[in-house]
Every structure is written in structure tokens, then in C-alpha cells.
Amino acid sequence: MRRPKIAVIGGGTGISVILDSLRKKDVDIAAIVTVADDGGSSGELRKNIQQLTPPGDLRNVLVALSDMPKFYEKVFQYRFADGDGPLSGHPLGNLIIAGISEMQGSTYNAMQLLTKFFHTTGKIYPSSDQPLTLHAVFTDGVEVVGESQIANYQGMIERVYVKQTYNEDKPRASRKVVRTILESDMVVLGPGSLFTSILPNLMIEEIGQALLETEAEIAYVCNIMTQRGETEHFSDSDHVRVLHSHLGQAFIDTVLVNIDQVPQDYMDYNQFDEYLVQVEHDFEGLRKQVPRVISSNFLRLEDGGAFHDGQLVVDELMQIIQVRK
Fold first, then answer.
1. How many CA atoms lie within 13 A of 130 on its CB side?
2. Model confidence, pTM
3. 219-275 per-position pLDDT tens digit
4. What are the E-state strand segments in 95-166?
5. Neighbour-count burial of 178, counting CB atoms closer than 10 A to its CB (0-12 exposed, 13-18 middle, 19+ buried)
6. Counting Cβ atoms within 10 Å, is residue 24 exposed (0-12), middle (13-18) or buried (19+)?
7. What are the structural domain ranges in the chain?
8. How many CA atoms lie within 13 A of 260 on its CB side?
9. In sequence order, which residues have a C-beta less than 8 Å from that of residue 249 and are 6 or more positions away?
10. Is 3.40.50.10680 the CATH number for 5-324?
């Protein structure tokens, strides 16, 4: 029997949890990863190497889908110390992706080579082969440019959109991305930052249109925590409302919601300073927007942070796939 095809869309840190568990299943995986990050190491590299799509999220996805030994992973993820001059703060993996992108002529080509080199389970596609800049329009009319700057503005985001960073051309999806979405049995959105990890992919018109046209089951893994400068005071229903409004119609079939409680005073807000409180539940609002709501214990507590338990989430996704067969 043909293996189910599952595409996962988002940013590297959030979706890596799902991908790491999903690769252990008998499925055909494709990860579609945002290229709008302009902060940290990725931001510095894209300033210095024009046409480079930011490598940080791609690096994390590469590790999640690879069977590389832990030592190789440690080497690939090694971050240069603060006192290392121009190399300060750069993960070694980002520099490798940047170098191979230059050698191969594009980040898309680099990722196809690196997936073979690291024996990954599945394909990895940057959502666009050109670096994109994220724009956020707030409810007071102020527009903030740059993913790394959005959380610094005190206000509520009304909408986001993306533009090519170095020219006025219309943002285009990378090769095979649209076809992958259209041919998938399931498309998984998130988990990850709503406005800065998930929506930058959907705001590439070809990708948004493919999500509206695909016959795949579209599942959204709702965040556990609200995020400073993005989703303050948001309920789970608000997250879905924003996704639907950006594409102009309802398109999500299933929402997965964590209902386990993060213990009071557990979060290490020095380490996870972007997170605020748990996302509030509005099940009535969710049921008005989506056909299926799955609420369960998806919580994993680790090192002072609240994360999704990838295995529990993937088990639910696989059950949905089985029902659809």
C-alpha cells in the first residue's frame, strides 16, 4: 500500500518536535520551512550574503529529520562563543548551509544535497528560494518591517504579509512546494509562532492558494503558550480565526489543542522570555470554525519550558490518516 504523504509547514523550532516523531512512522514526509527570519545568526548571514535564505529554521528541521549520530548533531548545532568576533553566535550548521547554498547556487539546491548527506527521512523545502521580509500591520495602522522587530512594538497585529527582500518581485514558492501540498494526504500547520513562523509561508500566494485547493486533511497544532508581542490574550479560537482571515476563508479541518495545565511558577521566563501564559480555551468558538477539535494532553515539560509531546501529537495525526483511508 502507498505510504501516506504528510507535509508539515512552519518554522524550524516548532515543527521539529513533530517531525522528529513523524519520521519514525511509515509515512512520506515533506517539511516546508519559513524563510522570513531576519534575527540572530540567520539575520546576520542574510545581510552579508544576498540571495541567501535564512538557514536557522532549515538547520533545525534538518537535524529533526536526520538519523545522524548525536555527536554529529552536536557538531552541526555548535554555536560559536560570544567573544569569537565575526563568528560570534553563529551555529556551525548555519555556516555550512550558507556555504553550500553559495556553492550550489540556491538554498533549495543546498537542502536537497544536505538531506542526502545526512540521510534524512523525507524532503526539506524552503518555502521560497528567495529571502523574504515579513511586514506586520497593527490595529492602530502602524506597520513594522522585519520578523525580529515585530515583538518589540506594543500593539495588536491585524495582518502580516511578505515581500521579497532585495527586489519588488512577487514572492514565489520554491520548486515542488505547491505540488507537494496538492498531492499530500495531510498538511500539518505548526506548532510555532502564529505570525512569524506559520503565516509567512501561507502569505506566499501560491502556497495559500494550494492550501485552499488541496484535498488533503489540514490539521493545525495550536500553541500551548501565548507569545509576547504576537498572541497576547489569544484563545485557541483566536489562533484559528487569524489563520482563516489571512486566506479569506475557512480551510482548517482539524485543530489539536492541549488541555493539560502547565504548573504554576514552572516556566523559566529568563530562558523562555517570549512566552506569557497558557492559551485559553474557547471550544465553542473552535467548533464554529472547524469540523474536528481534538483536545488531549499533549504537554511535555522540559528544562523550564512547555512543549508539545511530539509522539502524542503524531499518534493523533496517524489516527486521522487511518480514518481517511
1. 16
2. 0.95
3. 999 999 999 889 999 999 999 999 999 999 999 999 999 999 999 888 887 787 777
4. 123-126, 132-138, 143-145, 157-164
5. buried
6. exposed
7. 5-324
8. 13
9. 212
10. yes
